[in-house]
Amino acid sequence: MERRKLPYGQYVLKRIGYSIVTLFVLVTLTFFMQRLLPGDPFTGDKQLPQATMDALYAKYGLDKPVWMQYLMYLGNCLHGDLGISLNENRPVTRIIGESFTVSFDVGMRAIIFAFVLGVLLGTVAAIKRGSATDTICMFVALVGVSVPSFIVGSVLQYFLGLKLYQATQVTVFATTGWDGLNSKILPVLALGFGSLAQISRLTRTSMLDVLGQDYIKTARAKGLSQPAIIWKHALRNAIMPVVTVLGPIAAGVLTGAFVVENIFAIPGLGRYFVQSIQAYDYTMISGTTIFYGAFLILANLVVDLVTASSTRE
Asked: Is 177 strand, coil or helix?
């Protein structure tokens, strides 16, 4: 029995409802799971006097029962208040606003690199199916899917940063920072390599499916050139599945920038996230997790709504 599609308006409301529930679950799990970490923000190596610790607990509301802390935090989140960073003593929203611009810059460059080169490799692999070119392109994709970004980043730093500098005595690629073009190439390559692999594999599969369609055979029978068939007819349709996964890929790239930012000492949000875990900074951990989780949820929501809209036309 064929399942009846909901009217588009009802579908939109349903997906928004699911997104709100997902975000609520994320906030709840993040709040309680970080409380399972051993220790708290004011213990450990600092060994502060008990009176000082009691004052700090009272200041940040940590002296209250966990369920009360949760209700207070949930209420603050509903008003857009993610609290004060226990480590930085600044509003979490301000830290996110200042540092995410750098993370966004890194992520968008990586996404553009992955999309352009991934579509190109996938298209070439599909056209040259079964050839050495196809094998090489898919081997690159396999490496990209299998090797974590921090390994790729470390290898790039070693060979294109350190070894190339030792051989030429010229800093062709800077290995740290985010200032100048030569410092932005290696992080973008490391961060975008995995997404490039996903996009190239998906493009190849989609392109092979499109090239077997009747309208492509008709175009060939009419005498259209191979470049015209590929770029004007096949790629236009083959690229649609790739576009539908760009939202999750983009969110994945931006959230996966934490490790790459730390490897290359980039002053983005990833630095604060790692520091917050090391310092048991509950509000910063929750704030960054909720922020990136909301970003991922929103990206998937937009892609789903756009896809549903196109299928209902």
From this structure: coil
Cβ distance 249 to 1 under 8 Å?
no
Q: What's the whole-model pTM score?
A: 0.79
Amino acid residing at 201: R
CA distance 287 to 208: 43
Task: Give 269's Cβ-side CA count (13 Å radius).
Answer: 28
CA-to-CA distance for 63 and 57, rounded, in angstroms?
A: 5
* H or E stretch at 169: none
Phi, psi for residue 218 in degrees, rounded to 5: -65, -40
Question: What are 3's two structure tokens?
Answer: 């399942």
- Listed as ranges, residues in the chain with pLDDT below 70 are 1-4, 39, 43-48, 255-256, 310-313
User: Is 158 within 8 Å of 129 (Cβ atoms)?
Assistant: no
Tokens standing for residue 311: 């299928």
Helix (H) or strand (E) holding 264: none
- Taking only the tens place, the pLDDT of each residue in 105-132 is 998 899 999 999 999 999 999 988 889 9
What would the pLDDT profile of 191-238 be if each residue is shown by its tens digit? 999 899 999 999 999 999 988 888 888 888 888 888 888 887 788 888
Alpha carbon distance 281, 288 (integer Å): 11
How long a stretch of residues is the chain?
Answer: 313
Q: What is the dihedral of CA 18, 21, 27, 33, to 10 degrees?
A: -100
Nearest Cα residue to 59 out of 48, 4, 114, 152: 48
> Within 13 Å and on the Cβ side, how many CA atoms surround 145?
13
